[in-house]
């Protein structure tokens, strides 16, 4: 049996411009994950993440980037590596 998990996150940085005013950068990450459930399942799954931003600062490199991710979930917490 498989389950599809999806979610959305917003990534924000606190940047200061040359005048000393804070100008935050924002990016959106949308993740879709395919999780197979087995009796011996260590809760490892693979997914894909789509990034989108209109940032012109530190996060501008993420615009239109796609990443493959591996998710490991356990009672101690969840680890997502891209």
Can you describe this structure?
This protein has 82 residues and is mostly beta strands. It has one domain. Helix content is 0%, strand content 57%. The chain is built from no helices and five strands. It starts with a strand and ends with a strand. The model has no long low-confidence stretch (mean pLDDT 82).
Outline:
With 82 residues, this protein is mostly beta strands. It has one domain (2-81).
Main attributes of the structure:
mainly beta; five-stranded antiparallel β-sheet; 82 residues
Radius of gyration: 16 Å
Query: Number of DSSP helices?
Result: 0
Mean pLDDT: 82
| Cα separation of the termini | 24 Å
Helix-residue proportion? under 10%
Instruction: Describe the global form.
Output: elongated
Tally of domains: 1
Topology, number of strands: 5
Main sheet: strands, sense, barrel: 5 strands, antiparallel
Q: Give the oligomer, counting copies of the same chain as homo and different chains as hetero.
A: single chain
Percent of sequence in beta strands: over 45%
What spatial order of strands do you see in the largest sheet?
A: 1-2-3-4-5
SSE order = EEEEE
């Amino acid at each position: 049996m498989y389950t599809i998990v999806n979610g959305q996150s917003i990534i924000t940085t606190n940047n200061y411009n040359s005048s000393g005013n804070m100008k935050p950068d924002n990016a959106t990450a949308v993740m879709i994950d395919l999780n197979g459930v087995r009796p011996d399942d260590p809760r490892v799954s693979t997914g894909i993440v789509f990034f989108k931003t209109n940032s012109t600062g530190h996060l501008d490199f993420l615009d239109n980037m796609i990443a493959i991710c591996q998710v490991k979930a356990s009672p101690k917490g969840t680890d997502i590596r891209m």
